[in-house]
Amino acid sequence: FKHGFVRRINVICGDIMVKLQTRTLISSLIALLGIWLLLRQAPDFASSMYIVLTETEHVPPSILKLHAMHLSVNFLIGVFLILLRDKLAGWLAPNESGVKVFFRLFLAVGTSLMGVYFIAQGVVSLGESLGNKDLNFGENPYLYWRGIFSLIVGVILFIGSASISRLWALFIRLRHAGV
Known about the structure:
mainly alpha
């Protein structure tokens, strides 16, 4: 039993190419979507909170409440997807078939793509902020700080994608170990 368990962990979490079952692949994609939902509203909330707390601009606290609501809803849906990913994958793919993929590479690529999304969102927000300033619409600290926080999240996800995939593999290993 012990050797079979170790082999299974090496197959799931190792750097070797494995033939993943369709459900496992779909479950991983659902988990990545859940992580994306957990993170996607964080830059908006952080920039609004910064503006309200530092009083950089007169922004009503209702904006912070609105972004807190968006963050909460995305967070709950993300957690829901992560926790129920296996059940959802079983419902989406009742029949098993195999797909060959490097598991950790797959997770690292997915995480780095989320990082690219946040970097792009940050660059667009900073561009909008500079465009507003150049067109004499005035400075918009919300766009500026949303861009900064999006860039920070994006860079962390992109640069840390390999480490994040190793951490995810560790969680899977602990889950299969019954810890």
